[in-house]
């Protein structure tokens, strides 16, 4: 760090202050507030863990946790694997079709969530497009994707595959052709090149993609709220219900802390993979 | 049925081409059929059960949607909020992003981290806890309350994308301008800002789009007075016929598509992916 005058320091402080105050006000303070609220006891006598106990012992709550985790894990695995394959295809195939997909796959990132969910509903519901097409062939096919985990997962894949593909494509294009060609020149097999070079070189970005897919789906609200069933429900919907319908602020707060802890596990992995390179310390 | 014989396809196209076409077909079916279907429904006058293609096309439902007062007012409200949100977050976040990109100081890492924490903490949890704070300060159902929620949604991306935009400006170029006698302010506006501009514009675009699409937070703190388009969309999904819903959904997409078209030069995976790395 170079020596700076007090003027520069003042300048830095002045530039950063507004966003810092905003962060304090709408991120840090609410988080602290939530954590404090979650430890309140129901009779108001002070500190207690009863809401956490409830979350991990109540049958409905536990059911909702396992339901959410199931959906999230399938979503993360599914979208990462599919995205990796798609990214490999986009990176290493040079054809009109791959270029076309390469320009088209980002569009879903720009579609408002509710619109995308609605568009999917018009296709998969019982009087939707799939059903109507099946009627052309004299059958009455009902996809059965509404109001259950399958529908939510399908929608999650729709949202997360473009995102994960974007991160992985960026990572794969950073691997120069010459590196791969030289490996091939000395006789490395395709699979070897993949496992020894491409996968390790893109591993860090795969972790980044996984973290963000995981985090955004643990606390998902919109999709499960619109096309999820009534029981079990995902944690985001459960939290909202506790807050708005039962005004159970303590339980809602404890639920957000629990969801935060789930997300933190992946966030720690993310920070760790990021720190290892120390790139963010460079100025 | 010769046409449907897979072997025939295999030999005429070759293995790789066939494989590519399969990828393309699955890709389009999954990602684009729902959207195109919605597009078609928006221009259908009559769409009764067995029909795959609507029985009658027309603009009947557009007229219907524009006759619903609550829907029309939600459209203008959404745009006003999105515009102010974008402007405010640029004013607040850009100076910080510049300093974070250019100077190393104590607490810098902590600040970058605090934006990440805001992203790791479940949004819905943040909104509910902000809701409690709002009750205390009488911000529930106020314009400022809604604006703050919208800024929360876009702050991390706004800062991170702008930091990497400012960092992509070569230091040497700034130094050269300073050597030639330009002051720091002139250097910033003539050298730094023009080079960093595409990245900042992408960040601004995302803020605008995120604000237009924000629904959970507004649903929680904006009601009953501030009903933006996505908030109305919840009701539309439940209560309106699919043809009217499609019209309203299309109105929600159009601004995003226009922005995407305008910015397509700058919106590539490389620029966007940078925003998710903690650099």
Task: Describe the protein in words.
The complex is a heterodimer of chains A (283) and B (279). Chain A has helices at 6-38, 50-57, 59-92, 96-104, 113-124, 129-136, 149-173, 177-185, 190-218, 222-227, 235-244, 249-277. Chain A is an all-alpha fold and 283 residues long. Chain A has a single domain, classed as MetI-like (MetI-like fold, Orthogonal Bundle). Chain A is globular and about 75 Å long. Chain B folds into 2 domains: 2-61, no CATH class; 69-274, MetI-like (MetI-like fold, Orthogonal Bundle). Helices cover 77% and strands 2% of the residues of chain B. Chain B has 13 helices and 2 strands. The chains are: A mainly alpha (283), B mainly alpha (279). At the A-B interface, helix 1, helix 4, helix 5, helix 6 and helix 7 of A face helix 2, helix 4, helix 5, helix 6 and helix 7 of B.
* Average residue pLDDT of chain A: 87
Question: Order of strands across the widest beta sheet of chain B?
Answer: 1-2
The gross shape of chain A turns out to be globular
CATH class of chain A: Mainly Alpha
Distance between the termini of chain A: 10 Å
Helix- and strand-based class of chain B?
mainly alpha
Largest interface: A-B, 102 and 91 residues
Q: How many angstroms does the end-to-end distance of chain B come to? A: 57 Å
**Tertiary shape of chain B:** globular
Number of helices of chain B: 13
Radius of gyration of chain A: 24 Å
Text of the CATH class of the largest domain in chain B: Mainly Alpha
Give the name of the CATH superfamily of the largest domain in chain B: MetI-like
Q: How many β-strand runs of chain B?
A: 2
